[in-house]
Design goal:
EC number: 1.2.-.-
Keywords: Oxidoreductase
CATH class of the largest domain: Alpha Beta
Pfam families: POR (PF01558), POR_N (PF01855)
Protein name: 2-oxoglutarate oxidoreductase subunit KorA
Number of domains: 4
CATH topology of the largest domain: Pyruvate-ferredoxin Oxidoreductase, domain 3
Distance between the termini: 22 Å
Strand order of the largest sheet: 9-8-10-11-13-12-18
Structural class: alpha/beta
Radius of gyration: 26 Å
Strand content: 15-25%
Oligomer: single chain
Shape: globular
CATH superfamily of the largest domain: Pyruvate-ferredoxin oxidoreductase, PFOR, domain III
GO molecular function, one term: oxidoreductase activity, acting on the aldehyde or oxo group of donors
Helix content: 25-40%
Length: 582
């Protein structure tokens, strides 16, 4: 089992919970630890209850625990809500300047063998020359003392992050020191971190949406159009800040319909473009998805999943939109559906999505979810092998002019036609949303309708032959236990598998959801002694898809649909019980 220390920063929206948690995650990484940040918050601007949970280990870690070692409570509600999550000997750091712990609560805490450390955050900040906004800096210093780490590491990071002036830097340093010194050595002794060999100091702390945004820049995207919708909203804010440095136009559209059609227009004109949304927004985009299908226009959309239906639970996680991605849009046309499992896949798959869209001139949908999009991972190599840009059969105006006729929708064996930029040569370019002939003219003739539909559907066969088999982690041939899953469950499953090093466990991880390759998983299912699938939805959408494509029924489906990801303790139990079946 991995050594794991967990701290939860909790309080009300507007108290800087996320900032404090992210600073901790980055500082711990600099101290040589692997850290993972997970955030929960309600659908409110201010108020409500927010948390940022940091998982800490001397080994790589990318999963969430149900249990805490330290709780940093910035209001009384946080103590009441989370004290039962603390392990025996855990520590509660609380802002005693904001609330007083009742005798009843203090007795309950003592009975649970927990340690409480009161922090007069505002007073310590003022004594250090700071203001109320620097209370969190004081609290971070106190946490650092409980960890038993070198204060200079935290102070140096804070100085880099809050460097508007030398005075602000100096004051923040003093505030961190005040919090550090306020905690006695005795009080801090119970939760010191195990010694680290500093192997993660040079790693990157990055969120899933940030990695996806970087991948879009690397893919050569020059238009990002979107209407904000959690959990895709931070792609918009990230690219508005970073994408414009690389010549990207970033547009907040008035609605999702506009965003999608802007992408199609830009794509027809030869620009790599994309949009992102969540389930409700994708509902509105489905007409545009069909438009891209019949006009054979490259179209890339990121679908960040959250619990539905309707508004659902906007700020929590789910994998309930796979069927929407597979079937959204009217009529029949080929599409590609991808799903990212970690920041590296988000970075890489968005580039592959744009190549696929250009190569096959069809819609490509990349699925993420709130858990991946808004969690923060410790990554040593984000980029991996380069993904060369491939624009497919996009020909120059001169090349198109050599053709005797302008056959934008020329019928070909593989279903893919040449395309060129409208106006780049004398031949007419028609991108027609009515059924059309090879030249793009509207038609209602039966033989032409049949031929063009068959032509587009042949692209589906071409795509199916090109997409890869799923990745297999762990045992490659004869597993005792086979786990089948997709998306952001990847990091959790890999973390859990490491706790069973002597058992033959296989994990089949799907990134290419459609078209679906099944040869490898069939062989492993036949060879495995026990199989279960795992999804964050109520109906096992991917398990059903796999069954329709293989005829194999997976009877043990681990499903969760309460807005939370699977916890490491839950998966540990699933694996232990499955291994006990034989």
């Amino acid at each position: 089992m991995k050594d794991r220390v967990v701290i939860k920063v909790a309080g009300a929206a507007g108290q800087g919970i996320k900032t404090a948690g992210l600073v901790l995650a980055k500082a711990l990484k600099r101290a040589g630890y692997a850290s993972f940040g997970y955030t929960e918050y309600p659908s409110l601007i201010r108020g409500g209850h927010n948390v940022f949970q940091v998982e800490i280990s001397t080994q790589k870690i990318s999963s969430v625990s149900q249990h805490l070692n330290i709780l940093l409570a910035l209001n009384e509600e946080s103590v009441k809500l989370h004290r039962n999550e603390l392990v025996e000997g855990g520590v509660i750091l609380f802002d005693e300047g904001t609330f007083k712990v009742s005798e009843e609560l203090a007795a309950q805490v003592k009975e649970s063998n927990l340690n409480m450390i009161g922090l007069p955050l505002l007073q310590l900040a003022k004594d250090s020359g700071g203001t109320a906004i620097m209370k969190n800096t004081v609290s971070l210093g106190a946490v650092w003392k409980v960890f038993g780490l070198d204060l200079a590491i935290l102070q140096d990071l804070i100085a880099e992050l809050f460097n508007k002036s030398e005075e602000i830097v100096a004051t923040n340093r003093k505030c961190a020191e005040a919090g550090y010194n306020h905690v006695s050595d005795e009080a801090a002794s119970s939760t010191k971190l195990p010694k680290s060999d500093s192997q993660y100091a040079d790693d990157l702390i990055i969120g899933g949406n940030e990695a996806l945004g970087l991948g879009a820049i690397a893919a050569g995207v020059r238009l990002y159009s979107s209407y904000p919708m959690t959990p895709a909203s931070s792609i918009l804010s990230y690219l508005a800040k970073e994408g414009t440095r690389y010549g990207m136009v970033v547009k907040q559209a008035e609605d999702e319909i506009t965003a999608a059609n802007m992408v199609i227009g830009a794509s027809v004109a030869g620009t790599r473009a994309m949009c992102a949304t969540s389930g409700g927004g994708f509902d509105l985009m489905t007409e545009a998805v069909s438009l891209a299908g019949i006009t054979e226009t490259p179209f890339v959309v990121v679908l960040g999943q959250r619990p539905g239906p309707a508004t659902g639970v906007p700020t929590w996680t789910a994998q309930g939109d796979l069927n929407l991605a597979l079937h959204g849009g009217h009529g029949e046309f080929p599409r590609i559906v991808l799903a990212a499992g970690d920041p590296q896949e988000a970075y890489r798959l968005i580039q592959i999505a744009h190549n696929y869209a250009d190569l096959y001139q069809t819609p490509v949908i990349l699925l993420t979810d709130k858990y991946l999009a808004e969690s923060y991972f410790c990554v040593d190599n984000l980029t991996g092998e380069p993904v060369p840009v491939d624009r497919g059969r996009l020909v120059t105006g001169e090349e198109a002019a050599d053709r005797a006729e302008a056959m934008r929708y020329a019928i070909t064996d593989d279903g893919i036609s040449e395309r060129w930029l409208p106006g780049s040569q004398g031949n007419t370019y028609l991108a027609n949303s009515d059924e059309h002939t090879e030249k793009g003219y509207s038609t209602e003739e039966a033989n032409e309708i049949t031929a063009m539909m068959a032509k587009r559907l042949r692209k589906g066969d071409t795509i199916a032959a090109a997409v890869p088999e799923p990745d297999v982690f762990g045992e490659q041939d004869q597993p005792e236990l086979l786990i089948i899953s997709w998306g952001s469950n990847k990091t959790l499953i890999l973390d859990a598998m490491e706790e069973f090093p002597d058992r033959k466990i296989s994990y089949v991880h799907y990134t290419h959801m459609w078209p679906l390759k099944t040869e490898r998983v069939r062989k492993l299912i036949d060879a495995a002694e026990y199989v279960f699938s795992l999804e964050v939805n109520a109906t096992g959408q991917f398990t059903q898809l796999l069954s329709t494509q293989t005829g194999i029924q997976i009877l043990d489906r681990k499903l969760k649909y309460d807005g939370r990801p699977f916890y490491i303790e839950e998966l540990r139990t699933f694996i232990s019980e499955a291994l006990a079946h034989h």
